[in-house]
Amino acid sequence: MTFKRRHLLSLEELDAAEMMKILETSKVFREVLDRPIKKVAPLRGLTVANLFFEPSTRTRVSFELAEKRLSADTVTFTAATSSVKKGETLKDTVRNLEAMKIDMVVIRHSSSGVPYFLTRFCSSSVINAGDGQHEHPTQGLLDMYTIWMKYKKIKGLRVVLMGDAKHSRVLRSNVWGLTKLGASVAVCGPSTLLPVGLENMGVEVYTDIDKALDGADVVNVMRIQLERQQAGLLPSLREYTSLFGITKDRLKRLNKNYTIMHPGPINRGLEMADDIADCDQSVILEQVTNGVAVRMAVLYLLAGGEGRKTDED
Amino acid sequence: MPDKEFAVLMDAKQISHAISRMAHEILESLDDEAKLAVIGIRSNGDFLADRLVKEIRKIDGRKIEVGYMDITLYRDDLLTNPEHPEIKATEILFPVDNKIIVLVDDVLFTGRTIRAALNQIPDYGRPRAVRLAVLIDRGGRELPIRADFVGKNIPSSSKDDVRVSLVERGGTDEVLLSRGAKPTIAKAVKPAAGKARKK
């Protein structure tokens, strides 16, 4: 199949075939990362702007590396060091950047829907690198890729997404992606952090961690977003740890060949006991490596061929 | 399917003889210390590389590494080509340093594929030498590239279509030529290829 999209805004809008195309393509770029010289040239001559209006280490560096390994030129700016501080609107900022001949924009923003807003006036390809409480599609894809590489399938696996379903965009992208590829998905967290209507997304919802983990293959633990906690949703962090923290004891309920995932950054000792993050079943650092490959695949597919051509005509 | 435009340039027997001859020629060109690695360019070059290696092993006991290469990421038309080319895996799982690399492809035409392959090799290391083996050399070069080992020379015009069909891709072993316009035989020739790339 040919990948026809120009933007990657969410996994909600992608179908299973499109997601598999990205995962298949990621495999090729994963191999590039193991070469002595980790650089190929398909994006030579293209310029990518990384606009990070919210703090990020992993995603920003991952995108930058992906762009550089595809030989694109990159500019990165963060809100703290930009004219946004002087009161420039988002639209003006992006328009001015585009006037400097940008081909693709990677954006992270604390408001949901900002990437979509950009597509309304941008001629560049827009990639969502996390928007508010909406989605983080490349993180969802890299989580799926990591699962796919380990089990050689996604269909039929039981995946538990632990944590803050209300605020976590990673969780949301995982739900859309995994359910479309046929995994059986369970979400588990305190009822104050489970949004209404979650069960309509095709997932099982649990407030009892032991029931949720029973017979699961993969546990993907979301970070408790301390910066997004409004007062009152969590009585205390200690209570969260005792009721929903992942411990060695709780892992006994999982299937034998289980996998522990976390999108990072980890609050060690809060959502996950310290030793779990570094155990043999943890693929947390593999997720990070795969992230670069998956982002290379996304950039390559959006930059190339059809989308670009038709738009210039 | 009867098609007046279509001619068989090589049949299974001729292909097999050509590969066996090329195997001898490759061995003849090597000194005793030479460490040989054969890298096939996808698609078709990979299968021909396997066959070539099988032939070389029949004649000589030396160790040969085999790899496969997809040159899509090194193409010079990636951003201008409206068709999004499908990338396949590159598998070069051995160090290429100080080896004699024999690149294998089915048809040598403009030379652009080989140019891309030559660009890719340094990303894996520094071979002692790179040689080129092709089943068909059809002329029409747009770059200063030539093959060291050739199955058959078939001078043709750029309007002609030369196709190599192989058992490994679900066809029969033959080389086909159609003069003039793009042939309709494409479908009949490559039933397996239809899946790989949709037009």
List strands and helices in order, with pairings:
The complex is a heterodimer of chains A (313) and B (199).
Chain A: H1 16-33, E1 47-52, H2 58-69, E2 73-78, H3 90-99, E3 104-109, H4 114-119, E4 125-131, H5 137-151, E5 158-162, H6 169-180, E6 184-188, E7 204-206, H7 209-213, E8 218-221, H8 237-244, H9 248-251, E9 259-261, H10 274-277, H11 284-303, H12 305-312
Parallel strand pairs in A: 1-2, 1-3, 3-4, 5-6, 5-8, 6-7, 8-9
Helix pairs in contact in A: 1-5, 1-11, 2-11, 5-6, 5-11
Chain B: E1 6-10, H1 12-28, E2 36-41, H2 45-59, E3 64-69, E4 100-108, H3 112-120, E5 129-137, E6 149-153, E7 161-165, E8 174-178, H4 186-189, H5 193-196
Parallel strand pairs in B: 2-3, 2-4, 4-5, 5-6
Antiparallel strand pairs in B: 1-8, 7-8
Helix pairs in contact in B: 1-2
Plain-language structure description:
The complex is a heterodimer of chains A (313) and B (199). Chain A has helices at 16-33, 58-69, 90-99, 114-119, 137-151, 169-180, 209-213, 237-244, 248-251, 274-277, 284-303, 305-312, and strands spanning 47-52, 73-78, 104-109, 125-131, 158-162, 184-188, 204-206, 218-221, 259-261. The radius of gyration of chain A is 19 Å and the shape is globular. The longest helix of chain A has 20 residues, at 284-303. Chain A has a 5-stranded parallel beta sheet. Chain A has 2 domains: 16-135 and 289-312, Aspartate/ornithine carbamoyltransferase (Rossmann fold), CATH 3.40.50; 137-284, Rossmann fold, CATH 3.40.50.1370. Chain A is built from 12 helices and 9 strands. In chain A, helix 1 packs across helix 11 and helix 5 crosses helix 11. Chain A has 313 residues and is an alpha/beta fold. Residues 306-313 of chain A have low confidence and may be disordered. Chain B has a 5-stranded parallel beta sheet, sandwiched between helices. In chain B, strands 1-8-7 form a 3-stranded antiparallel beta sheet. In chain B, helix 1 crosses helix 2 (45-59). In chain B, strand 2, helix 2 (45-59) and strand 3 (64-69) form a beta-alpha-beta unit. By secondary structure, chain B is an alpha/beta fold. Helix content of chain B is 25%, strand content 25%. Chain B has a single domain (13-156), classed as Rossmann fold (3-Layer(aba) Sandwich).
